[in-house]
UniProtKB/TrEMBL annotation:
PANTHER family: NITRATE REDUCTASE MOLYBDENUM COFACTOR ASSEMBLY CHAPERONE, NITRATE REDUCTASE MOLYBDENUM COFACTOR ASSEMBLY CHAPERONE NARJ. Residues 202-235 are annotated as: Disordered. It holds the Pfam family Nitrate_red_del. One of its GO terms (molecular function) is unfolded protein binding. Keywords: Nitrate assimilation. The keyword Flavoprotein does not apply. This is Respiratory nitrate reductase chaperone NarJ. The keyword ATP-binding does not apply. GO terms for biological process: chaperone-mediated protein complex assembly; nitrate assimilation.
Amino acid sequence: MKALKLIGLLLDYPRDELWQRSEALRAALTEVELPSGRAAQLSAFVEDLLALDPMEAQERWLALFDRGRAMSLLLFEHIHGESRDRGQAMVDLVETYRRAGFELDTRELPDYLPVVLEFLSQRPAAEVADWLHHIGHILELLAARAVERASPYAQLLETLVELAQGRVELEPMRRRVASEARDDTPEAMDAVWEEEAVRFGVQAPEDDCQPPSRFSAARPASYPTSTLMDSAPAR
């Protein structure tokens, strides 16, 4: 589904390439098959994004998705938290990609939502429906939190919920998240830094841009059952 690839692209960190390829991005909007209301929202999101200065858009993304764990786009963060099961789930998910004929070509973790969406955009409809069903509870959680934070990214997440569940009914989830303590405040982040061990390394992280596609196609293969199980989000 082209809609999944486009939404995944828009949920990803907004690199300068988006502005350099703005016309191609607008052209992609015309190929997306969504209900007219959702398609209009998607188009409006793109225009609002492109109207921002890249650094402003990047700061907005970081403020939502990279400060605290509540809005993490790493799906296993919400299923396994920091348990040992998370590592094995990562291994299983990479193997799932490989058995489907794809290799990760990125530094992102395999459970990063934009990676998952790009993968699903290349899979048959029945498999897409199965995956979206399994991660539907996480999408609802993220969408409800984004709504509570009045983020424009909420409409992207709501669209995914609609694709996964066939409808968007976030009020029960919104009531739940409304009582949550925010983990993206300076005080909460300071507390996390105090609790976590400091790690030193001799090699600086790479700063090159990721390739346009995270997967390199290999031979077609059978697709196993999704490893993103219908678990309750980690608390």
